Each structure stands twice: as C-alpha cells, then as structure tokens.
Amino acid sequence: MRGVWRAWVVAAVLPLAVGCLADPQRVQSVDLLMQLTDARDKFALQPQQSCDVVGNVQTKLYGEPGLSNVQPAWTNLRDAADALQAVCGQSRLLAQPFNDSLATQQARQRWKQGIQREVSIACDHLCDAAAALGRSAPC
Q1: How many Cβ atoms from other residues are within 10 Å of residue 9's Cβ?
Q2: d(CA 71, CA 23)
Q3: For the chain, N or C: smaller number of CB within 10 Å?
C-alpha cells in the first residue's frame, strides 16, 4: 500500500513540476537578447569583440533547434543581429586607410550615417524582441 501511495504522489506531482520548468528555447532567446544588447552598447569601445558576439548570436539563431519557434522574438532577434552585422561591415570600411578624395569623403559620410541608422534599427528590433519575451526595453 505504501508503494502505491508513493507512486500516486509522484504521478500527481511530476506533471505539475515539469509544467513549471522554463522553456529552454525561451531562456536561450533571452540570453541572445542580452548578448545583442551588450554588443550594441559596446560597439564604440570594442568593435571587434562586439562583431564577434553578433556573429556568434547569428550562428545560434540559425543553428540551434527550436529557437525559430519562439515567435515573434526569433524574427526580431534575427533582424537585430542583421542590423548589427551591417554596423560591423560599415565600421570595418571606415577603419580602412583611404585617400582624401571627394568620393572617399562622401562614402565615409554615408557609412557613418549607415551605422547610426542600423544601430537605431537594431534597437527597434531588440525592443520588440524584449517585449515578446516579457522583458523591459533594452535601449
């Protein structure tokens, strides 16, 4: 009788306990949100490290099973990572040696404007992802 009682208690409590566990894809999505937000905040001080973080997040977004099911957070995280990857590319272009021609000056100005635009776009997507994950706006 004692074994039956224990089995009944385990059978009754186990589904309740499992139902309270955090969804692993959602937890990982929150972690990726935090990583992208941190990278966005540190671009000016640590551009290469920030670009590495963004690349790693993109790899996880496309490579981890089940993450794309966390909608609409996944779509917003993907779009934020894409915008930040554009910042990486434009920052690398600005870091290259250049001659002082009018065309080069104009290109550099467009890249600087592009960086500002992409950072703003990334912020919009990060805010949308945060809202979808029940977090406060990161920027």
Answers
A1: 10
A2: 13
A3: N
